[in-house]
Amino acid sequence: MLTARNVTKNYSNLQVLKGVDISVSKGEIVAIVGSSGAGKSTLLHILGTLDSPTNGEIFINNVQTSGLTGTRLADFRNRHIGFIFQFHHLLPEFTALENVCIPGYIAGTRKSAVKERAAFLLDTLGLKDRLEHRPKELSGGEQQRVAVARALINNPDVIMADEPTGNLDSHNARELHQLFLQLRDQFEQTFIIVTHNEELATLSDRQLVMKDGKIVS
């Protein structure tokens, strides 16, 4: 489903990624682990098309994303890739439902269909009674679930998660771990997760260990 070949990334004279190869199957949860500075987040951002590689090829469902630019790239990213970050990045002036709907509206999907799917996702994630609440009225765990629903709204091929439990307490982190497993089983959702959380990494289908810009195991 996702394949990356010989991906490198340089910032001036600093080589952050040193020829990374990765292959992820549909419905797989893959955790990328390693010490700080190993290149995990850089790799995730490149796989998610938020950054471009210095060299190498990336394919998502046989589309070479490293060959897309401008509006074509932005449209592909919005339709095929979902993102979850450590900090939820919800827009404070909008309700939970409205926050989830935004990527669907950007994709040009009919508004009634977007709202229906957003309400379904929030219900599935245990937030049926929180649709009209703004972020400040939600707990940290609830805000992260809204962010998960937003990532799912366009039925993406893959969700990229960068330290998704890093801002949660242990209880909410454990609930989010179980939620990822539920989404994999219920929707065959694919996840690539950068994490320092050993429990989340252990629950994943596979762990990729990075060191000094390379996958070492």
From TrEMBL:
Domain of life, source organism: Bacteria
Pfam families tied to this protein: ABC_tran (PF00005)
GO CC, any one term: plasma membrane
GO molecular function, one term: ATP binding
UniProt cross-references to SMART domains, sorted A to Z: AAA (SM00382)
Transmembrane segments: none
InterPro entries xrefs: AAA+_ATPase (IPR003593), ABC_transporter-like_ATP-bd (IPR003439), ABC_transporter-like_CS (IPR017871), ABC_transpr_LolD-like (IPR015854), MacB-like_ATP-bd (IPR017911), P-loop_NTPase (IPR027417)
CDD domains: ABC_MJ0796_LolCDE_FtsE
Protein name: Lipoprotein-releasing system ATP-binding protein
Origin species: Chitinophaga niabensis
